[in-house]
What we know:
Number of strands: 4
Oligomer: single chain
Mean pLDDT: 83
Distance between the termini: 12 Å
Strand content: 15-25%
Radius of gyration: 20 Å
Structural class: alpha+beta
Shape: globular
Number of helices: 5
Helix content: 10-25%
Low-confidence stretches: 1-6, 13-17
Amino acid sequence: MKDRKYSAMTALIFDFDGLIMDTETATYEAWREIYQRHGHPLSIETWAQCVGSDFGDYDPQRELEELIERELDWEPLFPLWGRDTAALAAQFVARGFRAILTCVDTTQLGAEFAGRDFDAALLAALPASVDPCGENGEFHTCVHAGPIFARPLALRAGERVLRDNRFEYCDVVLDEPLPARR
């Protein structure tokens, strides 16, 4: 059996936070293990309070510290936190990833950006007020090609629609069927 950990992807399902991987499951498992080490369970129901959030309503560290009645003696690591997002966006493009802007917050970026390819030309055209990685909710993307894919997905921009008088959405259309599963 082929080691799936290192096999190239043929398709992609997006997590709610717009990342190209399911971060919620891995984060929950890590917190669950930390809670267990301190003698407390962390139920999936409790964890669901923070799924897709910035821990504003539920902070797992604060709750654990309350349960054990002391502060945790640790400092979390965020490998990309504080990095230059212009450099990260340029690296993403330079490494051969391809993406399409699928949603634009028109209060921060023009509606005409919806459906554009995430490439060097787009990065050069972004207003200075817009984070090149969309970190402030300016836009969301669909990644459809890159070194982690077995082959690129033949996607193109489709219809566009404005919702809530604010968000310009662009459908992505698959131009060819995916190969049958083996």
